[in-house]
């Protein structure tokens, strides 16, 4: 199927990209294209211009510090998954990135594009909320808890672009997902971390938008062991029911995903502060 007509733009600087988007309300930014291009083929999107961001070096790269890992919005999943410094600093984040879709998508898809799209079955929202990340945009900093606002909705305003994502380094963290066998998208997943902001548990795939599981957080705050989850049950209210899974099944998967993410976290050695680079 052919694409609808549009003007293709490939700016070399962030300022040039922002100017194009500011001048044309119907222009769309293009990151990895793993969602937007299929939408164009199906005529679900008809932008007047596509502003390809891949030639803007300021939007790429990984910086690992003693307290945080910062990843540029246009950094491909493959880089996050295989960068040795990311793997040492936040193993669960590298693990998550390495399990996204298949190699072709991991080499083209980007973190910024994924979170701006906010598909409920995407992986990265769980990492951002589960680690208490901060999204740096062209206008402001947005806490992950405030960034994802609903089904395919975020706090981004028209013309606002994601520049980078800053992840505080946790003491330990884990991620587990149950993917759809047909698509690889997340049917239900969970990200668990023990870090500077305490215990955080984020659930993705189960509802219209990633959410924090307050009951699991409270239990693990009292006792960060599998025993704390004994008797835990995810309410079905507000969960998705579709051809992939009923809400009742997803509720059961939430409990299992949290337990397995916790197992991954507990399997990691707890770093001593003086050993951090």
UniProtKB/TrEMBL annotation:
<keyword id="KW-0560">Oxidoreductase</keyword>
<keyword id="KW-0274">FAD</keyword>
<protein>
    <submittedName>
        <fullName>FAD binding domain-containing protein</fullName>
    </submittedName>
</protein>
<dbReference type="InterPro" id="IPR036318">
    <property type="entry name" value="FAD-bd_PCMH-like_sf"/>
</dbReference>
<dbReference type="InterPro" id="IPR016166">
    <property type="entry name" value="FAD-bd_PCMH"/>
</dbReference>
<dbReference type="InterPro" id="IPR002346">
    <property type="entry name" value="Mopterin_DH_FAD-bd"/>
</dbReference>
<dbReference type="InterPro" id="IPR016169">
    <property type="entry name" value="FAD-bd_PCMH_sub2"/>
</dbReference>
<dbReference type="InterPro" id="IPR016167">
    <property type="entry name" value="FAD-bd_PCMH_sub1"/>
</dbReference>
<dbReference type="InterPro" id="IPR051312">
    <property type="entry name" value="Diverse_Substr_Oxidored"/>
</dbReference>
<dbReference type="InterPro" id="IPR005107">
    <property type="entry name" value="CO_DH_flav_C"/>
</dbReference>
<feature type="domain" description="FAD-binding PCMH-type">
    <location>
        <begin position="1"/>
        <end position="172"/>
    </location>
</feature>
<dbReference type="InterPro" id="IPR036683">
    <property type="entry name" value="CO_DH_flav_C_dom_sf"/>
</dbReference>
<keyword id="KW-0285">Flavoprotein</keyword>
<dbReference type="Pfam" id="PF00941">
    <property type="entry name" value="FAD_binding_5"/>
</dbReference>
């Amino acid at each position: 199927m052919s694409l609808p007509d549009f003007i293709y733009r490939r700016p070399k600087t962030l300022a040039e990209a922002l100017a194009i988007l500011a001048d044309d309300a119907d222009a769309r930014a293009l990151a990895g294209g793993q969602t937007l291009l299929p939408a164009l083929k199906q005529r679900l999107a008809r932008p007047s211009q596509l502003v390809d961001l891949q030639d803007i070096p300021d939007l790429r790269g990984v910086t690992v510090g003693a307290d945080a890992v910062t990843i540029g919005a246009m950094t491909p999943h493959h880089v996050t998954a295989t960068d040795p410094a990311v793997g040492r600093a936040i193993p669960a984040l590298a693990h998550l990135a390495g399990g996204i879709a298949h190699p072709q998508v991991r080499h083209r898809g980007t973190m910024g594009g994924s979170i701006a799209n906010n598909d409920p079955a995407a992986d990265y929202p769980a990492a951002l909320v589960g680690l208490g990340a901060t999204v740096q945009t062209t206008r402001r900093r947005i806490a992950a808890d405030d960034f994802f606002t609903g089904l395919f909705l975020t706090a981004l305003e028209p013309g606002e672009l994601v520049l980078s994502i800053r992840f505080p380094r946790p003491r330990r963290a884990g991620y587990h997902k149950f993917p759809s066998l047909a698509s690889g998208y997340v049917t239900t997943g969970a990200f668990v971390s023990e870090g500077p902001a305490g215990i955080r548990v984020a659930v993705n795939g189960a509802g219209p938008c990633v959410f924090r599981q307050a009951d699991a957080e409270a239990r693990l705050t009292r006792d960060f062991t599998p025993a704390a989850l004994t008797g835990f049950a995810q309410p079905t209210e507000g969960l998705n029911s579709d051809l992939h899974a009923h809400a009742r099944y997803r509720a059961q998967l939430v409990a299992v995903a949290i337990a397995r993410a916790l197992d991954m976290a507990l399997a990691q050695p707890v770093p001593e502060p003086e050993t951090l680079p």
